[in-house]
Write a structure and sequence with these properties.
The chain is mostly helical and 147 residues long. Helix 1 runs antiparallel to helix 6, helix 1 packs parallel to helix 8 and helix 7 runs antiparallel to helix 8. The relative contact order is 0.17.
């Protein structure tokens, strides 16, 4: 039987902790701030969506993801926030790998702890906006760059 490494256990634990925190209370707050903008445009047909994106500063990926996701799940705040919570929870994986590579296991744990308990990232995980996706993609690209 193969022995599981400490780093693997740490990543699994960090993912579980982030999942529990980021998926908890998704539907407590009403849709607010910029969320209606994302929801409205994600419900439009593709021609109207891309016409809007030509004059807007938001990239299309998240709108397309929400468009697909809202076609699969009920149009409810908690369900619409699931992709953001998922992207936020998954960010600790490449963040741990990146920071461990740059400074060791303790730095990886510290960076992931700061990320996990950051009010900003907790808020981003609970919004129907692209912030948590951008964070995941940014950290992942940094990790891939130093690999």
């Amino acid at each position: 039987m193969r022995k599981v490494s400490t780093d693997t256990l740490l990543v699994v634990g960090l993912l579980a902790l982030n999942g529990a925190l980021k998926f908890g209370w998704l539907g407590v707050n009403e849709i607010s701030n910029d969320e209606p903008f994302t929801i409205f445009w994600s419900q439009q047909d593709l021609a109207d969506l891309f016409a809007m994106l030509r004059t807007e500063n938001n990239p299309p990926l998240y709108f397309l993801l929400v468009k697909w996701w809202s076609g699969v799940v009920p149009l409810h705040a908690a369900w619409l926030r699931v992709p953001s919570a998922l992207f936020s929870a998954l960010t600790v994986w490449p963040l741990f790998l990146l920071s461990r590579r740059l400074g060791g296991q303790l730095l990886g744990i510290t960076a992931c702890s700061l990320f996990t308990f950051s009010n900003y990232h907790f808020g981003f995980a609970h919004e129907v906006r692209a912030y948590s996706l951008f964070c995941l993609l940014s950290v992942m690209s940094m990790w891939l760059l130093i690999r």
